[in-house]
Structure formats: structure tokens, C-alpha cells
């Protein structure tokens, strides 16, 4: 049997839960439209406060995921995975609950009807009440929540998140949030009853309370130890992310709300708190990456699909959504600044078989990267003593594309035919006796590729210069973007394989369209919580997967420049061996 108040009453509503704010919105609209003299409206202020609370958690979550700034001061090295993101998806349930608790309080206590905007004395009373009442009361309740029955039926949910992050603060049962809401309301109600309450006090206390919760639940140590060295008494007045992490890890110490003073008085203060705090802040705990995948931007609007903008959004495959368009000017300005002054920065990471894998973003677009480094050759030529192996991963990309072409196919139409991938695909297919129509106007480049093929296979490579040549071919491999008008030349029933970014428009209803070449990472991957562009969860671009295989196999050579066609089958078999799977 489910324990009382251990699940949310609107749990089955999903995102429709936000309709429960409807009565408050209706009250505000009615008052604005039909009341001649506008009155003090608590429904309006509660809605504003709810929005601000949500903004505090969202902004703190974003800052927490600025891995390029915070990676050396992370309390936990593991990153948040999809399972934890899903469990914390409705982290803001407590804001909705507290909205109705606040509304009930305003109707229950007449003192809330005529509050002044500002009363300086109220802040002092609220601070004293917080220190003398809220902190010890929360400490006592928190210790009770760790008793067997209450922990099993209630508080274990909060501790189920492996990696503490800002939004973890909201993951708790309704009973816990009711208790915490009542405790948080004590200084507000008492100060108002004493006649020192004000509107700014309510806003300020609630938002500071939320900010401090975000601070402690974040996995980035942002409190400099020098503060405690210079003013030692402060270590008993404010906790740190490391301090709270030790509570989550060991669970029998560090129970305080914000002030370790009460742990010291209750003899529950973890003796390792300050030493570990120094160690983490100094960066000693940092693990350097074993594998780095360099990715690039596709377009301005999709550049928002990063963890430090919206954590939940990036845990789903990228699709263009209406709420993104107002952010376009900011995304464009940021992209331009990074283009001019920025450098590669860390975006996401995961762990595979004990090794740290990271994805870094180069603030350039795909065509710029190719022009800049020639598929990695620039690094190898300019840095002959390079101690890391460089790979473009396109050998596995070619293998994935080729695996999607049925064995019985005898004719293929290929665009982007003289690119690295186009060349490798054409040469591989001609070995199978497949006739490849290579769309290119450069006879010189075509002949160069044709001359690479064995003499008995050269006749399988055919240069074409117009799309009309493929009007009877039902297998198209698209390596260069084609318009809907050009797609019309494909006969009904054509399948469009593609390795072009972004993908072509799915214009033809009588044809089928393949996805970008991709592979699913092995099942034992840990800490993966970000979808790579339009890829599904756990799926990465084939070039990323190619780099992973290169690393796992321990190849000593670089994989740069042109693709070695003889290695395509070898790399494919290696990918299967290490547990990567085609999508």
C-alpha cells in the first residue's frame, strides 16, 4: 500500500498540471477587467513569486551545467544521466503546492490583506526567527526523516538521485514539501503578525531560501575556502555543496538546513567536511578526459540545445520548437562572440568502462571545420610530436551508411560524390559490383577517384552532372544537401540514405528517408544525459562512435585525411565487438 502523501495528486496529468494555476490566473484577469478600483491581489503576487522561484532554480541549474567553467570544482565527477533527469522531470511540483498553501494563508490570516511594500525592521525579525526557529526545527525534522519508516516511504525518493544537482532540491514527496513549506512560512507569518511584515520581505525570504537550497544541492563547489580561513566562524553559518554532498553520501551526518552550527551542536557534523571542501575547490578531485569528441554548430537555433541552457530540453532529441525563437537573437549574438573570441569548450560527458569521455564544442560550423583542419590533417602536420591520437571517425560513418544499403541493390545515385565520405562509399560499392552514379561537375576529381578503383571495377563508377540521370534509380545516397525540387527526379519508392547535416527535408510522401549515420553506445555507458543533436537517447553520430572505437581498440595511428577503404569492414567489426550497435 502506498504511504499517505507519498505521491502527487496530479501525477497523471503530466505537463497539464500547469492548468491548476488557472483559477489564480482567472482571478487576476477578472480583477483587471471588471474591478473599477484595482485592489491588492495576492493571486497576482503568488503567480509572480512562482515564476521567480522557477527562474531561480532554472538559472542555477544552467550555471551548474557550465561544465567548461565548473569541471575542475565538481563535487561529483559523474554526470547526470537520463534516468535521473526523468525522475526529476517534475521537480517544480512543490512550487505549485506552495502556491496553494500561500493562497490559503492569505485568506486565513487577515494580516496579509494590507501589507506595506517595505519595512526594514521585518528583515531583522525574519533573520532571528530563521536562526532560532527554522534552522533547529528543520534539523530535527530532517533527522526524523532518516528514521526507518519515514526514510523508506518518503525521504528515500530525495536520496534516489545519484548525482546531486540544483533540481534535485525539488525531488521529494508531497508530505515533505508540506512540512518544509510550513517551516519556511514561520518567519514570514510571525513577522507579519508582529506588524513588521512587508511584500518585499516575503519575496526576498522565499527567493533567498530557494537560492541557498540550489547552492547546497549543486554539484559545483563555488564557496572559496579562503572565506572560512579568514573568518572561521562563517563555516558554522553557511553550508557548501561539499558539506551537503557528504550528507547524501553517508546519510548519518550533516543534517542542517543552511547552518552547520546545528550539526556541531547535535554532534552530527562530518569531520571531513572542511578538508574535502578544500580538496574539491582546489581541483585535486578532477579527472582529465581520456577521449574528447570535437563537435560543431549546425545552425543558430539548434546551438541552444546544450545542457547549460535547458537541462530537460537537451535530454530529448533536438526539434525546432516555438519557445526557441524568442531566444534566437541571444543565441546569434553569443555565437558571433564565440566565433570571434571563443575557443573549444566542454559541453557534455559520460563514462565508459571507467574512462572519461567528453564532448567539446568548436564555435564554428561544419564547413568551417573542414576548411580549417582538413579532416584533422592540419593538427598532425603542424604537431608531429602530438601525444594524442586524432581521428575524424569517418571510416565508421562510411561503414554505417554502407550497412544500410541492401545487398541486392545494383545501382546507387550519389551526391557529394567527391567528398571524403562520397569517395569511400563509391569505391566500396564498386568493389561489390554496384553501379554508382556520381553527381559531380568536376571531371578531374571524378577521374581521380575512378583511377583509385581496380581496373575491373572502374566501369561501375559513372559520372553524371544532372539529377535527371537518377530518375530510374531507387537508392539515393545524399552527401550534399538537395532541394525538394531536386528530389522530384527520384522515382516513387526511392529510399534516401544521407550523410548531410542538417538532414534534407522529407518532402516526398511516396519515398522513405534514412536518418543521419549514427550508432547506439554500449549498454554500460554511465552518466549520459544529453541527446546529440537529433539523435535519440544513447545514440551518437557515427563519427563520434568512430572515435570511441578508435580509442577502445587502442589504435596507435591517426585517422585523418582520406578514408582507407580497406579499413571499413575492420572498423565495423570492431564496433560490433565493443557493443556499439547500428540504429
Automatic annotation (TrEMBL):
Q: Which membrane topology describes this protein?
A: Multi-pass membrane protein
Give me any GO biological process, just one.
lipid biosynthetic process
Indicate the segments forming the Fatty acid hydroxylase domain, all copies. 128-268
Transmembrane spans: 46-66, 95-115, 122-141, 178-199, 322-346
Instruction: Tell me any Pfam family this protein matches.
Output: FA_hydroxylase
InterPro entries given in the database record: CER1-like_C, Fatty_acid_hydroxylase, NAD(P)-bd_dom_sf, Sterol_Desaturase_Related
Taxonomy, superkingdom:
Eukaryota
A GO cellular component entry from the record: membrane
Which residues are in the Very-long-chain aldehyde decarbonylase CER1-like C-terminal domain?
412-582
Q: Where would you say this protein principally sits, based on its record?
A: membrane
| Family label | Belongs to the sterol desaturase family.
- UniProt name for this protein: Fatty acid hydroxylase domain-containing protein
* Organism listed in the record: Aquilegia coerulea
Amino acid at each position: 500500500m502506498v504511504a499517505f502523501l507519498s505521491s502527487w495528486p496530479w501525477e497523471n496529468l503530466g505537463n497539464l498540471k500547469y492548468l491548476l494555476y488557472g483559477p489564480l490566473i482567472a482571478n487576476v484577469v477578472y480583477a483587471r477587467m471588471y474591478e473599477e478600483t484595482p485592489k491588492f491581489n495576492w493571486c497576482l503576487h503568488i503567480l509572480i513569486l512562482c515564476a521567480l522561484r522557477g527562474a531561480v532554480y532554472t538559472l542555477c541549474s544552467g550555471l551548474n551545467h557550465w561544465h567548461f567553467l565548473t569541471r575542475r570544482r565538481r563535487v561529483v565527477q559523474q554526470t547526470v544521466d537520463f534516468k535521473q533527469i526523468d525522475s526529476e522531470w517534475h521537480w517544480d511540483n512543490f512550487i505549485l503546492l506552495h502556491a496553494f498553501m500561500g493562497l490559503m494563508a492569505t485568506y486565513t490570516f487577515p494580516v496579509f490583506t494590507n501589507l506595506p511594500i517595505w519595512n526594514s525592521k521585518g528583515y531583522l525579525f525574519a533573520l532571528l526567527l530563521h536562526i532560532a526557529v527554522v534552522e533547529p526545527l528543520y534539523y530535527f525534522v530532517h533527522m526524523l526523516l532518516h528514521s526507518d519508516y519515514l526514510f523508506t516511504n518518503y525521504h528515500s525518493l530525495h536520496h534516489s538521485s545519484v548525482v546531486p544537482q540544483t533540481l534535485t532540491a525539488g525531488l521529494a514527496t508531497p508530505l515533505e514539501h508540506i512540512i518544509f513549506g510550513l517551516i519556511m512560512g514561520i518567519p514570514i507569518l510571525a513577522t507579519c503578525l508582529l506588524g513588521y511584515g512587508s511584500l518585499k520581505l516575503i519575496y526576498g525570504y522565499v527567493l533567498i531560501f530557494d537560492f541557498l537550497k540550489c547552492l547546497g544541492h549543486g554539484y559545483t563547489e563555488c564557496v572559496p575556502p579562503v572565506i572560512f580561513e579568514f573568518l572561521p566562524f562563517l563555516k558554522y553559518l553557511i553550508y557548501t555543496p561539499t558539506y551537503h554532498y557528504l550528507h547524501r553520501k553517508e546519510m548519518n551526518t550533516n543534517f542542517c538546513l543552511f547552518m552547520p552550527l546545528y550539526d556541531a551542536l547535535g554532534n552530527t557534523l562530518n569531520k571531513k567536511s572542511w578538508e574535502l571542501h578544500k580538496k574539491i575547490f582546489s581541483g585535486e578531485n578532477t579527472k582529465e578526459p581520456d577521449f574528447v569528441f570535437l563537435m560543431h554548430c549546425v545552425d543558430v537555433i539548434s546551438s541552444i540545445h546544450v545542457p547549460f541552457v535547458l537541462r530537460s530540453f537537451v535530454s530529448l532529441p533536438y526539434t525546432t520548437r516555438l519557445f526557441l525563437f524568442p531566444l534566437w537573437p541571444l543565441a546569434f549574438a553569443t555565437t558571433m562572440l564565440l566565433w570571434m573570441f571563443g575557443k573549444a569548450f566542454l559541453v557534455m560527458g559520460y563514462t565508459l568502462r571507467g574512462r572519461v569521455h567528453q564532448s567539446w564544442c568548436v564555435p564554428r560550423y561544419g564547413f568551417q571545420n573542414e576548411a580549417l583542419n582538413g579532416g584533422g590533417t592540419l593538427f598532425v602536420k603542424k604537431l608531429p610530436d602530438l601525444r594524442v591520437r586524432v581521428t575524424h571517425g569517418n571510416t565508421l560513418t562510411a561503414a554505417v551508411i554502407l550497412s544500410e544499403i541492401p545487398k541486392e541493390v545494383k545501382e546507387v545515385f550519389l551526391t557529394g560524390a567527391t567528398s571524403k565520405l562520397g569517395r569511400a562509399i563509391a569505391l566500396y560499392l564498386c568493389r561489390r559490383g554496384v553501379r554508382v552514379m556520381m553527381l559531380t561537375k568536376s571531371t578531374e576529381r571524378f577521374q581521380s577517384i575512378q583511377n583509385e578503383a581496380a581496373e575491373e571495377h572502374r566501369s561501375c563508377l559513372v559520372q553524371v552532372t544532372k539529377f535527371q540521370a537518377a530518375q530510374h534509380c531507387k537508392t539515393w545516397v545524399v552527401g550534399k544537401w538537395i532541394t525538394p525540387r531536386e528530389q522530384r527526379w527520384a522515382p516513387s519508392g526511392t529510399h534516401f540514405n544521407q550523410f548531410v547535416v542538417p538532414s534534407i527535408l522529407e518532402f516526398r510522401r511516396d519515398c522513405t528517408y534514412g536518418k543521419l549515420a549514427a550508432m547506439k553506445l554500449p549498454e554500460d555507458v554511465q552518466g549520459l544525459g544529453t541527446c546529440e543533436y537529433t539523435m535519440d537517447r544513447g545514440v551518437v553520430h557515427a563519427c563520434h562512435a568512430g572515435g570511441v572505437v578508435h580509442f577502445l581498440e587502442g589504435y596507435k595511428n591517426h585517422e585523418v585525411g582520406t578514408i582507407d577503404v580497406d579499413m571499413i569492414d575492420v572498423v565495423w567489426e570492431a564496433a560490433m565487438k565493443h557493443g556499439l550497435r547500428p540504429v
